[in-house]
Amino acid sequence: MTAQTDTQGSVTTVYKVSGMSCGHCEGSVSGEISQLPGVTSLKAVASTGEVTVVSAAPLDDETVRAAVDEAGFELVGQV
Length: 79
Description:
Blueprint: E1 4-5, E2 11-18, H1 23-33, E3 39-45, E4 50-55, H2 61-71, E5 74-78
Antiparallel strand pairs: 1-2, 2-4, 2-5, 3-4
Helix pairs in contact: 1-2
C-alpha cells in the first residue's frame, strides 16, 4: 500500500517500524514523527509495528526514517 489522498486533501500513509514492543515505544515514535512539518495525526501500534500517519502532503521517506531513527527504532518501509 502506498500513500492515499482523501477527499479533504490529507494523505494517509502506513509505515512498518521494527523494534516497537510497548506503549512507551509507541509514544517515542509518535513524538518524533508528530514533529514533522505537515503531520496532522498519527497512530502507532506496537503489536503490529505499524504507524499510520495523516499529513497535509506526502512525506519524504528519508525524513520519516530520520525521525524513527531518532526515536531509537528502524523504519522498514511503507506497508
